[in-house]
Amino acid sequence: MLISLSDINKVFNQGKHNEFHAIRDISLHIEAGKVTCLKGSSGSGKTTLLSMIGCLSRPTSGRITLENKILSGLPERFLTDIRRHTFGFIFQKFNLLQGLSVLENVMLPAYPLGLNHKDLKASAQKLISHFGLDRVMNNPVEWLSGGESQRVAICRALINDPQILIADEPTANLDTRLSQEFMGLLDELRKTGKTILITSHDPIVFNSPVVDRIVEMQDGQIMES
What three-state secondary structure class fits 186? Predict the structure, then answer.
């Protein structure tokens, strides 16, 4: 197993009158090279679980391991390093930085790694070309269509050649055609050996043949897998 979760809990405002258990006693194994979909309605806990797997937040209790390396107890500086090298993120609203070009947005996550600028630019241009965005490469991202923004977000997520791609409700702002196109792009990435974790309550996503496994969540617990 690539990722293993054991008895994971996430509690917000612990010990206060408004204490909230977002994740309850979840144990889960995620296989390498597969597309796993966390399915559930808004508030089911799937985004919270994904953020802990991607080292964006910590569990209140329990253990998360990546290739037998325990992540949940690591100091923040080590988690940051693992996050940068291991995970690529595609967010629901794309989170592209306005005022910057497509090329600049794609290059951005790689700057902290201190790579040679010429090599980094060449890698970004190659990704942009692969996803058919050559003609908008130097355009500000606010000029892009929804489909173009989605592809730029994928390029940005891939710039550090991550082992694991995490996509949180990636079709929420896309129409049916673009959602189907996105799943086709995921299929391409799966065939290159990427491990993909995706959250969604969109039937186009969880009914797609691209998805290898569906993990259904409700009220912070796994209901079916």
Answer: helix
Identify the CATH number of the domain in which residue 205 sits.
3.40.50.300
Q: Which domain holds residue 125?
A: 34-58+81-224
User: How many domains does the chain contain in total?
Assistant: 1
Alpha-carbon distance values, 55 to 50, 79, 204, 212 (Å): 9, 6, 27, 23
Is the separation of the CB atoms in 182 and 173 below 8 Å? Answer: no
**pLDDT tens digits, one per residue of 188-225:** 999 999 999 999 989 999 999 999 999 999 999 999 77
14 located within any domain: no
Tally of CB atoms within 10 A around 172: 15
Q: How confident is the model at residue 112 (pLDDT cuts 50, 70, 90)?
A: confident
Name which of 199, 147, 155 is nearest 35 in CA terms: 199
Q: Is the pLDDT of residue 85 over 80?
A: yes
In a domain, 41, yes or no: yes
Orientation of helix 146-158 relative to helix 176-191, angle to 10°: 20
Assigned domain for 72 exists? no
